[in-house]
From TrEMBL:
Organism expressing this protein natively: Streptomyces coacervatus
Domain NADPH-dependent FMN reductase-like: 3-144
Protein name: NADPH-dependent FMN reductase
Family matches, as SUPFAM superfamilies: Flavoproteins (SSF52218)
Keywords: Flavoprotein, FMN, Oxidoreductase
The keyword Zinc appears for this protein: no
Amino acid sequence: MATVLSVSGSPSASSRTNRLLRHLDKRLIAQGHDVIPLDVRTIPAVALLGADFKHPAIVEATKLFAQADGVVVGTPVYKASYSGVLKALLDLLPQYALAGKTVLPLATGGSTAHVLAIDYALRPVLSSMGAGHIVQGWFTLDKDITVHEDGSLTVAPAATEALAQVVDQFSTALGSTPLLAAAS
Ligand SMILES: Cc1cc2nc3c(=O)[nH]c(=O)nc-3n(C[C@H](O)[C@H](O)[C@H](O)COP(=O)(O)O)c2cc1C
């Protein structure tokens, strides 16, 4: 089975994007993949904003990308594009850090006006980094993601179905048999 790096690109401590990715990680794990979560907000700002390529956290993140067969890249939509912290990390990786890798782009946002941000903003960057295969992504409205007091998460049924589909397509592209059950 594949090694998947699941990168959440939100700077927010209560990030919905982060919760959503960790929720989807479970489906990938159930399909037999090794999933490594990476929350960009945990990388020291001094490394990200100071372009410190040699900072241990950047060296470690670069290794995680190199070891992965597949990468989930999740971002909130900020100002009609992907987040600044995600870009700060991508800028510190080698030019072809995604060479030969299968990539699943995901976004959360507040308005369907920016549903195409994955395609006009994120996808070209992933492509420029050599991604071997960028599978169909998905934009989830923030109002469709509910985080409960106990930390559990509910995703609206239509979004659940669409997310299960793109995750399974990603999984298939990585060479596994997707689950038949929808993500809960
Ligand atoms: C600074 C900022 C800018 C935002 N800009 C947009 C935007 O341009 N389009 C949009 O659809 N949503 C926008 N949103 C809403 C977020 O994309 C949405 O709430 C998202 O789910 C937040 O994810 P997070 O909790 O992981 O940070 C913005 C939110 C913030 C805080």
